[in-house]
């Protein structure tokens, strides 16, 4: 049984399918125990990976390094958009190529929505900016796509010209997600997307994310300290403690049968109903 | 008994300032920055701006550039809002007449160096003329990105997509691209540039211009240039193409239908008239009209 539990689901085991993102011996330490120690991981197209752990365990640092925003001290991150594309090592290609790749293929959802939005630009402009960054120059077309995406994330079409600072926290987060998805990225990085939202809004947001991920076949790396979020969204889970990956495996396996003492503590400290 | 200084001043012509006010080393430094700017059209070159005997915002950037390029044979013209007779234009012209002892003019055709704020003359420029602009804010991306480190990166990597957002927001608010001055342009397909607060009416005049155009921002200490015969394209959308201002009526004074018009209130009842903002051009047209009338009448 052990063997089966550790294995990846069949859909990700197709040898013809190369991993979308690969990290090899990746490490970034600000100080001993601050940051994360060497990590290897493979992320396949359409797969959702949750990184869980307590505050200061290196989750966000790992996410930043994986998403091309923080140079690691060791190891490399290799991204291969599809089998025709040559694999690119994120920190060895030029900065111009890296930013180009991040614009076209990555989405980054910040914990605080205003970090990822432009406060003085209308909601439509916030979504449209991503399209204009990748070369869209037709106003009517940009506006149509912005409207479609607002509807897709359940924001009223009449709010398209309102500033994001007039939106509620949940709406801002949904707007941020729309802004990231409008360019059809292959890979989305999310840092605590449900942090700071009340429970009912959280539930709706999670529902939305889950639907979008399935519909668009997105690969997602999601950082969270909320095990319920991980259980709902993730195929695989990675548990971190003090910069080390202490356990990794299928979500249900890890949460139902935690092996490491820290994971056991984490699972048992969730309120049981 | 006369002091030594009195004897010297009696024998030498009065000359309290170096030619062009700035010292020769400073002028050299600025000319180097200009050469770099000419080699990289549209790129903002940092330079060591000097204190000038007037406040920032009064055209110190333009004055430093003019001071560095003026020679003894140059003929100097200053335009302020298109006019030759407003305070700023008169003082800057007097300043250079005093510190350079050179000839000044109000006629566009006679001038070899023209310092301007807000306008490019209506009369087409020649390739032996230099146009010097006074620039308040040289960074076109400031609107979308407040961080200097980030805008530098955007320039170096040519990431200008976000600039379209400004135009997008205009269309959202007003139904058309309402930006009417400091309208962003791409210079020779490489650098995004803010053409200082000239009306977008003047943007097409920068494209393949005969004259060298120099832009100086005194407070921000930046110089950028458009060499002659350079492509300058205004940003727009496919379905909202770039267009310039248009007026219902011709100039009330000279009758020109092709020049940029200023709206002038003429009484307390709110009556207004539209006149050419380029005073030299307007007077030229008036003289031409009078000559034609004399010929036919």
From TrEMBL, chain A:
Keyword Lyase annotated: yes
N-terminal signal peptide: none
Keyword annotations from UniProtKB, A to Z: ATP-binding, Lyase, Nucleotide-binding
UniProt superkingdom: Bacteria
A molecular function GO annotation: lyase activity
Spans traversing the lipid bilayer: none
Span of domain ABC transporter: 21-267
Protein name: Phosphonate C-P lyase system protein PhnK
The species this protein was found in: Motilimonas cestriensis
UniProt lineage: Bacteria, Pseudomonadati, Pseudomonadota, Gammaproteobacteria, Alteromonadales
